[in-house]
Structure formats: C-alpha cells, structure tokens
Amino acid sequence: MRAITIPEPGGPEALVWAEVPAPQLSEGEVLVRVAASAANRADVMQRQGFYDPPPGASPYPGLECAGTITEVGPGVSGWAVGDEVCALLAGGGYAEQVAVPAGQLLPLPKGLDVTQAAALPEVTCTVWSNVFMVAHLRPGETLLIHGGSSGIGTMAIQLAKAVGAKVAVTAGSAEKLESCRELGADVLINYREQDFVEEIRKATDGRGADVILDIIGAKYLDANVKALATNGRLAIIGLQGGRKGELNLGALLAKRGAVTATSLRGRPLEEKAAIVAAVREHVWPLVENGQVRPIVDRTLPMADAAEAHRVLEESSHIGKVVLTVD
C-alpha cells in the first residue's frame, strides 16, 4: 500500500507518499480501506520531530480517517466487512489502509459522505471528552473557546450551543470571527485587538467563563485564570503558546477553580473506547439530525499532504483540512 512517510523530520516537504508494507491485524482490530483522513496540528508536530507516535502505533501520521472495513480481526464483534466507518487513530490515517482497534470505530453518520466524516473523530472526541466529560459544561454556563475557527473550535461552538451554553470565542480576524458567529458563537473577541479577559468579563456581567477550552498553554495561563468564573474549569488541550508558565495558585484558590490538561492520542485503548462510545451516544444523533456538522475548509489529495500542512501552519483555514485517497 501507499502511505505518507517521514524519512527525516522537517518542513512540509518532509512528507513523502511512498510504498510501505500493509498493516497486520492484531486481536480486536479491523482493517479499514481509507477514503479520507484529516490534517491535525499533532501531525505537524510529528512531521517536525516533536511528537512521536505512542508505542505500538503506526509510524505514519493521521489521527482519524473514514472508509470501509475490508477485514475483521480475531475477537471483534459488531462490525463486518463492507461497513462504512470513521475512526479515531493513534496514527496511520495518511495511508491507503489502517488497522483500527474496534473500540475506536464509529459508523458513518447518516447524511454524510466519507470526506465529511473524516473530519469528525478527532474533534468530536477531543471536545466531548474535555468540555463535557472532564469540565462538565452545563446548560446556561459560558464556554470560552480559544481558536474558535479551528477544527476543534468550530465543533466546540456547535456542541456547546446544542446543550444550551453561551459561547465566547477568540480568533485573529474578522472573517474567522464571522464564521464563528454563523455557527452560533455569542461573544466574538479578536485576540489581536482586544483583551479577552476584559471582554469575557463584560459579556458575563463580571462573572467570567465557567469553562475555558485552551489550545495555547503557557502564554495564556495567567490570563485564563483571571478570565475564569468562580468554580470555573480551565481545560488545556494544546501548547501552541509554550509548555511552562507561572500559575497564580492564590487566584485559582480564590475562585475555587480547576485546571486540567489532557491529550487523546496516548490514552489507553479502554479510555479511548469509552470516549468514542460517549461520542456515539451523545454527538452522533446531533450530527445525523443536522444540528451539528463538520466544517471542512478544503479537500486535497493525500499525495498533497505537504500543502495541507502549509495551510495549517499559516492558520489560513476555517475548520478542517481533509485529505482524500483516490
């Protein structure tokens, strides 16, 4: 089969579409013929040499895919050859075939094609696990999303609105903020021109945000604590602004706040399976009734994965960049 390989870490040109051995199934896995995958910032970090796959995972990038089951391994029930699926992966989505633990499979949502479905697993699992399973966002609360126009952000807006929360977002341009507004965001903050702490306080009559979904990390740590409401929860899922910051424990204590930091890729199989099951129960009905939809900025051939990475690094996209296999 063919896959996107990374012979040496580097820029987008380091991605090479090459012939590689086909995956071998282990207990509890199925083989999926990939029709589409999606590009994520974790893939960019892997290409740069900063984010190796977990032990035992495919060496190829790609944290999600959509396609068709072509083989069912030992110990698998509930899935059959020919089923159209999408999947959460620890790696290997940038390929013609990938082995997937059965617990990380989702049925292709009714009404969606494989290109749209490929944009769902990583964002739905990330948002549902962090905003709802960990931070417990409730109806009537305020969620602040940093990077509201990203794949994660566009999904978080829709899911938060679906459960009756108020949504504030930060983004770096009027175009991106308008796309967030169209998805339902109530408070639009241009982080290049406005102080998000002041803006979230104005929008909440001084209370602050009940939950903050943060992709920045260290750079925003102090400001995020200031922006939290009493009993607020800060969920950190990215480190685009650095790994080490100073945390004002006194301010956090005064607000009875909580800070969590999670990643998805390296979790044990049983934890991933539990998240996927929760997404299937709570998110898939919203997707199938049209209340929530994947936002796809553009599609590119898998062989042009380098271009997809350039788009991500330029942050010129809104939603997801999807890669298709001929």
Structural summary, described in words:
By secondary structure, the protein is an alpha/beta fold. It is 30% helix and 26% strand. It contains eleven helices and 15 strands. Strand 9 (166-171), helix 5 and strand 10 (187-190) form a beta-alpha-beta unit. Helix 3 (121-134) crosses helix 4 (151-162), helix 3 (121-134) crosses helix 9 and helix 6 packs parallel to helix 7. The chain is globular and about 55 Å long.
Short description:
By secondary structure, the chain is α/β, with parallel strands linked by helices. The chain has eleven helices and 15 strands. The strands form three sheets. Strands 3, 4, 5, 6, 7, 14 and 15 form a seven-stranded mixed β-sheet that branches.
- Rg (CA only): 19 Å
Overall structural class, as computed from helix and strand content, comes to alpha/beta
What count of helical segments does DSSP give?
A: 11
Biggest sheet descriptor: 7 strands, mixed
- Report the uncertain regions: none
Percent range of helical residues:
25-40%
How would the global form be characterised?
A: globular
What is the mean predicted local confidence, pLDDT?
97
Please report which band the strand proportion falls in: under 5%, 5-15%, 15-25%, 25-35%, 35-45% or over 45%. 25-35%
